[in-house]
Amino acid sequence: MTKHHLDQSRGWSCLALTSLLAVLPGMAFAADDIYDNPNLSIPQLTPCSARYELVADPAPPPNPKDGKDAVRAGYGTYDDWGTRENIEVLSPQQSGLSETALRVHYPAGTSSPSDNGKGGAGFFATIDGLSESTRSCLQYKVRFEPGFDFVKGGKLPGLYGGAAPSGGEEVTGDEGFSIRFMWREDGQGELYEYVVKDADYGKSVGRGSWTFPTGQWVTIEQEVILNDPGQKNGIARVWIDGAPVLEQQNIVYRTNDHVYADGLMFSTFFGGHGEEWRTPRDQVADFSDFRFYRPQG
């Protein structure tokens, strides 16, 4: 289904947070945010990629006709925007990895697609290996160009289910959810959720729990455990470069058992709405090594 058709502990000690800072140079934790919110903590489990089974590892083909062709051939989707104009494919030599990468362009003066111009790109990729999964794991790499100007913030890919609400759409839990990432000022990271809640737009969760550097690859890992309908027992966990940074509990993703974690919501652009969100110059970010996992059996 596409958009248009469509255990837990209180947290680690301050000593543990200090240890994490030592192994994550350039990344800072919002410890006050974590400890002041009873639903937030630090994961005490290994990354979900180490606990779950790999079910998909899609990648764009080399030498595609254009970005749209790359996305459609590599991720099996026809639900996309901005891919022809703003996506190019990097070879393994250009990416510095063992596979191709998507380079996304954010033209000067653009922000969200509904605001001013069309910067960035997006697509929905249903992952067959996640079919009817209530526990899903997404891992990918992102690299912001050296000196990237984060302005006020922008969107990054994450998992979705059902109709993948976004853009101010109402979330009732009956038709789906989305749980992307955002960068904020100075590269602060956060979860950006469209789940059952009282808000007009997505919910900012754990802002500043980590900070994105520029000019180097960063591995993001996201685990989603859907709630049982009628209960507030959903969970989201995040690891950055293999280190635990954020766990959120008591999430309501769904109100019926027909909503699952279906796949990838690739979504990246500046914004927010309004001039203050727009990128002041042409900029790029690279994405690669998308992997999807679910529990064995």
Description of the molecule:
- This protein is mainly β and 297 residues long.
- Helices cover 12% and strands 35% of the residues.
- It is built from 6 helices and 16 strands.
- It has helices spanning 14-23, 31-36, 48-51, 67-75, 83-86, 92-95; strands spanning 40-41, 53-56, 80-81, 87-90, 101-106, 121-126, 135-144, 153-162, 176-184, 189-194, 203-205, 218-225, 234-240, 243-251, 263-268, 283-294.
- Strands 1, 2, 4, 5, 7, 12, 13, 14 and 16 form a 9-stranded antiparallel β-sheet that branches.
- β13 and β14 (243-251) form a beta hairpin.
- The chain is globular, with a radius of gyration of 18 Å.
Furnish the topology, listing elements before pairings.
Elements: H1 14-23, H2 31-36, E1 40-41, H3 48-51, E2 53-56, H4 67-75, E3 80-81, H5 83-86, E4 87-90, H6 92-95, E5 101-106, E6 121-126, E7 135-144, E8 153-162, E9 176-184, E10 189-194, E11 203-205, E12 218-225, E13 234-240, E14 243-251, E15 263-268, E16 283-294
Antiparallel strand pairs: 1-14, 2-16, 3-6, 4-5, 5-16, 6-15, 7-12, 7-16, 8-9, 8-15, 9-10, 10-11, 12-13, 13-14
**What would you call the structural class?**
mainly beta
Query: How helical, in percent, are the residues?
Result: 10-25%
Tell me the number of helical segments per DSSP (H or I, 4 or more residues long).
6
Q: Unreliable stretches, pLDDT < 50, 5 or more residues?
A: 1-33
Largest sheet: 9 strands, antiparallel
Tell me the fraction of residues in β-strands, as a range: 35-45%
Element pattern in H and E: HHEHEHEHEHEEEEEEEEEEEE
Principal-axes geometry comes out as globular
The average pLDDT value, as a whole number, equals 88
